[in-house]
TrEMBL record:
Keywords: ATP-binding, Coenzyme A biosynthesis, Cytoplasm, Kinase, Nucleotide-binding, Transferase
Name of the gene: coaA
Pathway field: Cofactor biosynthesis; coenzyme A biosynthesis; CoA from (R)-pantothenate: step 1/5
Gene3D superfamilies noted in UniProt: P-loop containing nucleotide triphosphate hydrolases
Reaction it catalyzes: (R)-pantothenate + ATP = (R)-4'-phosphopantothenate + ADP + H(+)
Origin species: Lacticaseibacillus baoqingensis
Enzyme class: transferase
Predominant location category: cytoplasm
Location within or outside the cell: Cytoplasm
Single GO molecular function: pantothenate kinase activity
Protein name: Pantothenate kinase
Length: 307
């Protein structure tokens, strides 16, 4: 283990040993289930990285429940049941939603009597028509492209158990907010919130998004690798766009492949890479845990915030 400023940095081999104490590691039966539900993440990563991470979340969740209980005792009240919220930050296409899906699965298995839900902040982007009206359609993903008031309100309502909470839904296929559809968050015990902006400071709001988090993760990788993953995902979007004229990428899918990839490379360079450097990377050192990925999404080291 290496100690850097306010982080302990563990090589994969050391981090992999942290699941053996107190809390069950991922079982073979769970691995079988994962294999059928998620064929992207390597099962070795589940054992070496995500099983210890689940252990860490368990430790933090236990502390959180105790702190909530103690506070309610102090106030002589019985209301100590606010959901535990985990934030996942990182670049566009670094693997935030894949990590969120996997953690959601692992936590649901660990706590069968708890309700685990997840949401992406993509749904809080302004619709394309509004971005266009503001003249910022080419700034999608940058701080000003999100309705931060709505996101803060949403988190506030979930954290304060304000019944069923609804949020807009974003689709990568139509490249816009889906009209007449919404995400429904219904009294979760654990909520996972993933998005490029979850550790950013608000410009006008009096409260940070991360004030609602009880644990935060940042998925990190070399931008050149992330570009490759972005282009691979773009290739997959083209594959599914072929048969669907309503798909945003339909014209690219039926047109010249080289031109399509040239466009995607330019979007990466001019929008997503710029956003990463200016607004996302500077939030890395606010995360409690930094998962560092190398080629093929393999995680080679994990940093854990000391204080
Ligand atoms: N652990 C992983 N192993 C293999 N592929 C992955 C992994 N994580 C993400 N991917 C792939 O990388 C691309 C980006 O992942 P995604 O979760 O969509 O990123 P984000 O939510 O950060 O934009 C997708 O094509 C996804 O299938
Ligand atoms: C919707 C997003 C801001 C969020 O990205 P995600 O983390 O879901 O990959 C991004 O996918 C996006 O559309 N960026 C704008 C430029 C582009 O890639 O088209």
């Amino acid at each position: 283990m290496e100690s850097r400023m306010n982080y302990y940095v563990f090589p994969r081999s050391e981090w992999a040993t942290f699941h053996t104490h107190n809390f069950a590691s991922v079982s073979d039966e769970e691995l079988d289930q994962l294999r059928s539900l998620n064929d992207e993440v390597s099962l070795q990563d589940v054992k070496d990285i995500y099983s210890p991470l689940r252990h860490l979340i368990h430790v933090r969740y236990r502390d959180y429940q105790l702190a909530e209980y103690n506070l309610s005792q102090f106030m002589g009240e019985h209301d100590h049941n606010h959901p535990f919220i985990i934030g996942i930050a990182g670049s566009v296409a670094v693997g935030k939603s894949t990590t969120a899906r996997l953690l959601s699965l692992l936590l649901s298995r660990a706590y069968p009597d708890k309700r685990v839900q997840m949401i992406t902040t993509d749904g809080f982007l302004y619709p394309n028509a509004e971005l266009e009206r503001r003249g910022i359609l080419n700034r999608k993903g940058f701080p000003e492209s999100y309705d931060m008031d709505l996101l803060i309100h949403f988190l506030n309502n979930v954290k304060n158990n304000q019944g069923v909470v609804r949020a807009p839904k974003y689709s990568h296929q139509i490249y816009d907010i889906v009209p007449d559809e919404e995400e429904v968050i219904d009294h979760p015990d654990i909520l996972i919130v993933e998005g490029i902006n979850v550790l950013q400071l608000p410009s006008k709001q009096p409260i940070y998004i991360s004030d609602y988090f009880d644990l935060s993760l940042y998925v990190d990788a070399d931008p050149e690798l992330i570009e490759q993953w972005y282009l691979e995902r773009f290739g997959m979007l083209l594959e599914t766009a072929f048969t669907d004229p309503t798909n945003y990428y339909y014209d690219y899918a039926i047109g010249d492949r080289e031109a399509a990839f040239a466009m995607a490379k330019q979007v990466w360079r001019d929008i997503n890479l710029k956003n990463l450097k200016e607004y996302i990377l500077p939030t890395k050192n606010r995360a409690d845990v930094i998962l560092h990925k190398t080629t093929d999404h393999v995680i080679d080291r994990v940093a854990l915030r000391k204080f």
